[in-house]
Specification:
258 residues, alpha/beta, Rossmann fold, 6-stranded mixed beta sheet, 11% strand
């Protein structure tokens, strides 16, 4: 029986794809991918926790993950580091490469992610150069260690705001569903799974985009700033994280079903 392990931060935990019946009350692309894998006999574990930075993923998830001997491991971390201008990406990515190397040496297939292109984001567009540097490091690591890449940067369909949650930072349920389909495409194209497994993901129909007046948009922006931006800034200033009190969703392998 093959085993899939997911490591990382909020992206992989599934924030933005609310499901009150699941651990941490989120589903996410990794769960959605695993549901297809498990339907074909795989097992699944997920150690990702929101708010984690690269060093935290290395320190808190690497050894545990290696002990679980996954056939496939997906790793994404770095978004929370990119948002911090003083973070040394070169040094952090050396640690990231060490994490990938240890899994590949242990015989795992490793799936990595590039960062999303924030060119159209009023709030995060200034992080674009750092994300581009991060992405080039990811490509170098993948080349050096034979890792697979889910190329989020080049998947332009994710620029549609309907694939984003109300916090404007995480993907919506529709976004996570699309990501699961794209991940299965990558796995199928590289013979990790059968090529047609992505067809088992049903993509939701997108609702029509609202046409807001300038006043309505301003009101929406102010509401977003109060509910999401303010608390995020407060956590940054106080050195706290939304994941500080959370545990991994699936710390042991399970057979996950819809």
């Amino acid at each position: 029986m093959k085993k899939y392990l997911a490591l990382g931060d909020s992206f992989t935990e599934g924030v933005g794809d609310e499901d009150l019946l699941r651990p941490n009350q989120v589903r996410g692309w990794a769960d959605r991918t695993a549901e297809v894998l498990c339907a074909h006999g795989w097992e699944y574990a997920n150690l990702a926790i929101r708010g984690k930075k690269i060093r935290q993923v290395i320190n808190e998830q690497l050894d545990a993950g290696l002990s679980m001997a996954p056939d496939l491991v997906s790793i994404y971390a770095g978004g929370n580091d990119i948002l911090r201008p003083k973070a040394d990406l070169d040094a952090l990515m050396r640690g990231y490469e060490g994490m990938v190397r240890r899994f590949t040496e242990a015989g795992s297939t490793v799936l990595l992610f590039t960062g999303f292109d924030t060119v159209d984001s009023p709030l995060f567009s200034k992080t674009r150069p750092r994300t581009a540097i991060y992405n080039e490091k990811i490509r170098e690591i993948a080349d050096a260690h034979g890792a697979l890449i889910a190329d989020y940067w080049r998947w332009r369909e994710f620029s549609d705001i309907r694939y984003w949650a109300v916090d404007r930072l995480h993907m919506s349920a529709a976004g996570h569903t699309l990501m699961a389909s794209r991940v299965l495409d990558v796995l199928g194209a590289n013979n990790v799974t059968q090529a047609n497994w992505s067809s088992q993901i049903t993509l939701p129909a997108l609702q029509s985009l609202p046409v807001n007046s300038r006043g309505e948009q301003l009101k929406e922006d102010l509401g977003w700033a109060k509910e999401h931006l303010g608390p995020w800034i407060k956590r940054r200033l106080t050195g706290t994280s939304s994941g500080d009190t959370l545990q991994p969703k699936y710390p042991d392998y399970i057979h996950l079903s819809v």
